[in-house]
Automatic annotation (TrEMBL):
It comes from the Bacteria. It holds the Pfam family Asp_Glu_race. SUPFAM superfamilies: Aspartate/glutamate racemase (SSF53681). This is Aspartate racemase. GO terms for molecular function: amino-acid racemase activity. Belongs to the aspartate/glutamate racemases family. Keywords: Isomerase.
Length: 231
């Protein structure tokens, strides 16, 4: 199996989920004691948040490109960025390494398209919902129309991620609000919803949602393992 490099720390809760899922999926596929050869580089999330809030995506791109080089030097044969939001700088990361960069939108979009769906809702950070990097790639490469909540619900979704989930707080009241927002997306024609922030899986599961959920984290992991196991 190829060695999977994980570029994480955004947040560490998200990275821990990636590590758990990679090894659970590896054991499910291969059996026995099989786990994933992996390398994890965890950045300081506080520095990333400061760049996000300042809108300094160029600095964030340089920072994560340098981290990706370190992951590669540590032996990674492919690289995962363990966050949806920072795929805003995916091009800079991809240009910095000479091994495959597994893009989370492509992993998610392929599964949605295979399900025959063409219009889906998206929950994530404000940056993921409002910047064009996610929706444009989903539309242009996979033919999928992505809709996001109206305000003030986008703010609510964002604040729950940063004030609760990235601090390992899971609140029942926030889950109820997310379910309400999913119902609103359904009323606007969404056939399913993308959990477009890795931490949202801590809050919302299939049993909670009135629409099918596409967990971008789990789909990203599965796609990476497909590549890692390919002969």
């Amino acid at each position: 199996m190829r060695t999977i490099g994980m570029l994480g720390g955004m947040s560490w809760e998200s990275s821990a989920e990636y590590y758990r899922l990679l090894n659970e999926e590896s054991r499910a596929r291969l059996g026995g004691y099989n786990t994933v050869p992996s390398v994890l580089y965890s950045v300081d999330f506080a520095a990333i948040v400061a760049m996000q809030e300042a809108g300094d995506w160029a600095a964030a791109g340089r920072h994560l490109a340098d981290a990706a080089r370190q992951v590669r030097r540590a032996g990674a044969d492919l690289v995962l960025l363990c966050t949806n939001t920072m795929h805003q700088v995916a091009e800079e990361i991809e240009a910095a390494i000479d091994v495959p960069f597994v893009h989370i939108v492509d992993a998610t979009g392929a599964r949605i398209a295979a399900a025959g769906l063409t219009r889906v809702g998206l929950l994530g950070t404000r940056y993921t919902m409002e910047l064009d990097f996610y929706r444009a790639r989903m539309r242009d490469r996979h033919g999928i129309d992505v809709i996001v909540p109206e305000e003030p619900d986008r703010t609510l979704v964002h604040d729950v991620i940063y004030r609760e989930l990235t601090r390992n707080r899971v609140e029942d009241g926030s889950r109820e609000q997310y379910v309400r927002i999913v119902r609103g997306l359904a009323e606007r024609g969404a056939e399913a919803v993308i959990l477009g922030c890795t931490e949202i899986t801590l809050l919302l599961g299939p049993g909670d949602s009135p629409l099918p959920l596409f967990d971008s984290t789990r789909l990203h992991v599965a796609h990476a393992l497909d590549i890692a196991l390919a002969q």
